Amino acid sequence: ATHYLADWRPFPYQITETRLEFDLAPRATRVRSRIGFVRRGDGDLVLDGAGLKTLSLAVDDKALPLSLAGDGQLIIPAADLPDSFTFEAEVEIDPEANTALEGLYLSGGIFCTQCEAEGFRHITWYPDRPDVMAPFHVTINSDMPVLLSNGNPVEEAPGRAIWQDPWKKPAYLFALVAGDLRAVSDSFTTMSGRKVALNVWVRPGDEGRAGYAMESLIRSMKWDEDVYGREYDLDVFNIVAVDDFNMGAMENKGLNIFNSKLVLATAETATDGDYERIEGVIGHEYFHNWTGNRITCRDWFQLCLKEGLTVFRDQQFTSDMRSPAVKRIHDVQTLRARQFREDAGPLAHPPRPDHYQEINNFYTATVYEKGAEVIGMLKRLVGDEGYRKALDLYFERHDGQACTIEDWIAVFQDATGRDLTQFKRWYTDAGTPRLTLTEDWADGRLVLNFHQETAPTPGQPEKPARVIPIALGLIGPNGDEVLPTTVLEMTEPAQSFSFDGLGARPVVSLLRGFSAPVTVDREIGADQQALLLAHDTDPYARWQAGHDLALDGLILRAGGRDGGEDFNRALAGVLADAGDDPAFAALCLSLPGEEEIATAISARGGIPDPDAIHAARRAQMLDIATTHETALARLYDAMAQPGPYRPDAEGGGRRSLRLASLAYLSRLDGGARAEALYRTATNMTERQGALEQLIAAGRDKAALADFAAEFGANRLVMDKWFMVQPLRAAPDRAVARARELAAHPDFDWKNPNRFRALIGGLTANHAGFHAADGSGYDFLAEWLMRLDPVNPQTTARMCSAFETISRYDAGRQAHARSALERIAALPGLSRNSSEMVTRILAGL
Ligand code: ARG
Ligand code: ZN
Fold this sequence. Notes:
With 844 residues, the chain is of the alpha+beta class.
């Protein structure tokens, strides 16, 4: 069944309090609920439930027939209900059988929950919709040593704990954890003087790996006070790490539950990227306390109200904690790789969709990352002060409410007096606008002619013009900036802007800071790109100029022509200054990936050939390595860090430049340096970096065996082992390698991290996954069909590996189609996967 935004109706009852009592048992947990309702409109009482064994039902102590409990819904006619009443139910559920990891389940002996989006209905009968908010009172009966729920602890006795959450919340923010856990503890005193007890709960033995998560939490709490004036509102804040989790983490009120890979880290086991993600996601979940929990969503169509804003906030946080330039470039790379890809294919949808079959399929790059970009544009349009005023108004006006994108836009209009009618299209329209620039130059006057166009997306044939903030500067021919950053506001399909009084013709530094999520099409020569790469004052635009130059060369080479010399030449300058900002230099040095090259070829009307792209990229790397061997070797040595490992931006920047150099040098030394680094590295960043080069060089046997011997007992580290092999294998070996690994006794495929490591490692190997014989597609389909009955959410998410298929040749399309049709024909295919496969097939 399809759900439509237009069908939303207010829930006709209000809940005064939700009381829950759990008797925990792996195979038969009893849940007793007492829910106080007050009528506030017309309509029957409709409760949601899924997979519940209903033992009793009552209203105001009068038993109801169990036959009321239908398949998915329990409906009590309004006529049978007084104006205020207490609903009671007792149900039995089976956490051990819950492999879908939705509702209450067991992960390595720990009871835990995941209720967003619609998991609570797997726990008991309830109005499982985000606009129904209530204070919760929770009793847990269990002999597990640690018993946690939302809010503040009220009573703790052996075998029982009571928690009370005074802040009303929707059911998706409910959480319960019970297990043998150990805490890493600290405290935080808020700006008004409230002392908050902080705990990061982990399995016994992991206490030494949770310190960074705790430091990140404290930094997040401080940052949200300093930057947004937001204070924490309970006496305790608990974080729990579990090994089996469908996504990254969950912002349950006062009790965040995390995938352990986003909590546990030591220098020996986690990479710089892992540390940065831990800090970012700890921040993200913490920031949800205000943007998500205190102010939540009216319905799931509004998901980007909390996710777009919270991603935007976590991006600002990381930017403040680390390097703003590097963070911005990383975010643009992610957006392009994941969201532009989504927008260009059969799964395209707006940040605020207006229909869905399975909401869990809409936790997407569009809702999250594009949702954040849209807020970045708003902030640029209204200015920092306008943004701050709008956010203050948002918190003041909507605290305790379940809101919509319309509410969000209204606070910006009211706080700044700006009409945002046209801007709202960014929320309702799918697709990435293509911005075209042509220039006229005469008599010291530069005219910039912009044109915007958005291709149709499924269900949206017409694309009216959007408001596009275009930040730009002008760089003179000798490299000085003749116009500092200026923001143009484009509102028409075509619009020109002119700049007078210029001495010599400047080069436009376009879309500074990536001021809008658009693709750019412009005439620009290699010399001009090289000029920007050398002199642009905006770090993002500088990096982008080099990146475009590299991409142009790679596309030529993949088409069998000469190319790449310009980029190769321009790198001399990058290498000469590399020591000044190693992280930035590493970004400039890294060539566009194969997937990105394929995307660009297809955007220019070609059909990408994965093998040719792979070969072109390797050839380009060899050329660069040969030309710049001395400088690269010098950098490789200079970036070594003898002191203790520190997971900060500076140390990470040096390591990233060292590894970027190593990738080139390995083309020349056959992996000799990588082998030496693998043996001597004392941190996982360099360990993994070296291992990846050894796999690419086909010189990996000893290192892989050594890695497994050293880390075999550490699940998170072994995920890396399972991921890098299919990812870095030569394309013609990748599927075979993935098959071998799938037969490995440690391939615990029911664990989402392990499944994603191996299967996702292969799908991220562009030429390997898109093998011309369709073996990559067959392998993926086989595993999706095996996982679907066990874990539909994780299966459905991985179906998106097929979303780009229509850009490849007919042979590959035919192989992919038959793989997708096999999945579609699986008896009992989940609603999650069925929706994904149907949408993808519709685009073929
Ligand atoms: N709200 C969580 C976050 O962004 C994501 C949880 C989504 N889980 C799911 N099964 N859809 O941090
Ligand atoms: Zn979130």
